[in-house]
Design goal:
Length: about 190
């Protein structure tokens, strides 16, 4: 008579994901025991306070583009550790979402962006220098949106340079570098609404 091997006797491979999840679980349980209240946000995140509130931004596009207006509304999230921004671009009613925060491991500001066309981006910034907060990263820009779940797009390098002009007033200069090496630049002039 044949006997079947039990499934639990088979060798099991421990993957990095499983190991990482276990390590995270141990870390979180240790942190919970050591800390009885929520961790306050890092002081560096205050460097993003200029984004808080509602803004209307007049956008001057690169040559050949059409001017637009961007409306943003930014709030604190996760106990002030992150700032979440709702974005609406007119004409066209493009809707997006950006999240900003501080990376305590690498000592940088971080940002992620997503919109309802399917475009997405990740940015980092070393922090304020000479009155400018410059984020750099990669943007996957959907060219022609489609409800089919498939659309053409292009990866490009992007730099976004924030400059404060006064209370409730800042500019953002976006420099896009296409795969061909062509560089385009647009400017948003943002005022508190």
């Amino acid at each position: 008579m044949k006997t079947q091997r039990s499934a639990w006797r088979r060798p099991v491979r421990v993957t990095a994901a499983v190991f990482g999840a276990g390590l995270l679980s141990l870390t979180l349980s240790g942190a919970a025991g050591a800390q009885s209240k929520a961790l306050p946000p890092p002081p560096q995140v205050k460097g993003l306070d200029f984004l808080l509130g509602s803004f209307e931004c007049a956008y001057t596009p690169p040559p050949g583009g059409s001017p637009s207006v961007t409306y943003t509304k930014t709030r604190r999230a996760l106990g002030g550790h992150y700032y979440d921004t709702e974005v609406r671009i007119e004409p066209g009613s493009l809707r997006g979402f950006a999240s900003y925060g501080w990376n305590p491991v690498e000592g940088t500001f971080i940002s992620q962006y997503h919109d309802d066309w399917g475009s997405s981006a990740n940015y980092v910034s070393p922090g304020w220098k000479d009155g400018h907060l410059v984020f750099t990263g990669r943007l996957l820009q959907v060219i022609t949106p489609s409800a089919t779940g498939k659309a053409p797009g292009v990866w490009m390098d992007i730099q976004e340079d924030y400059h404060l002009l006064g209370r409730g007033h800042f500019t953002s200069v976006q420099t896009f570098t296409l795969p061909s090496g062509v560089t385009l630049q647009g400017t948003s002039d943002c005022r508190r609404a």
